[in-house]
Amino acid sequence: MMGHPIVTDSPPIPECTACGACCFSRLATYIRVSGDDYQRLGERAEDLVWFDANRAYMRMSDGHCAALVVHKDTGEFLCSVYETRPQTCRDLARGSGACLGEIDTKGERPLIALGRSR
Ligand code: SF4
Ligand code: SF4
Q: Is residue 9 in a domain?
């Protein structure tokens, strides 16, 4: 009897601006902000960072990082502090296992934010 190979179908990895999944979370402590991160954020830091005792985190809003701009007209997700984003965000490489995990677990949320569904 012929065996059936188990193949997990991986869809192509989207451009980050068409995805946004890793910028979504319901956790207030999702993105940790280090002292270096805070400095790099410059004048945006005060608006975008909140403190829990001596720990700092990116502020969350509507289920995603407050720095994320959701363009409903174009369907784009743009980080408004891309050049100065925290190290955690810099470390998440598009196409990595972590990225695929983000898409797998949270891929629907950006679409819901756009008012679209699959
Ligand atoms: S989950 Fe991956 S493809 Fe989507 S925005 Fe983040 S890094 Fe880019
Ligand atoms: S700082 Fe930018 S890249 Fe990082 S979670 Fe927020 S919107 Fe996404």
A: no
| 104 found inside a domain | yes
Question: pTM to 2 decimals?
Answer: 0.90
The whole-number average pLDDT for the span 69-95 is: 97
Residue 77 in any domain: the answer is yes
Helix (H) or strand (E) holding 56: strand 55-58
Q: Is 65 in the pocket of ligand 2 (CB under 6 A)?
A: yes
As a whole number of angstroms, the distance between CA 56 and CA 33 comes to 5
Within-domain flag for 8: no
Higher pLDDT, 117 or 26: 26
Nearest ligand 1 atom, CA 17: 5
Question: How many structural domains compose the chain?
Answer: 1
CB of 68 closer than 6 angstroms to any ligand 1 atom: no
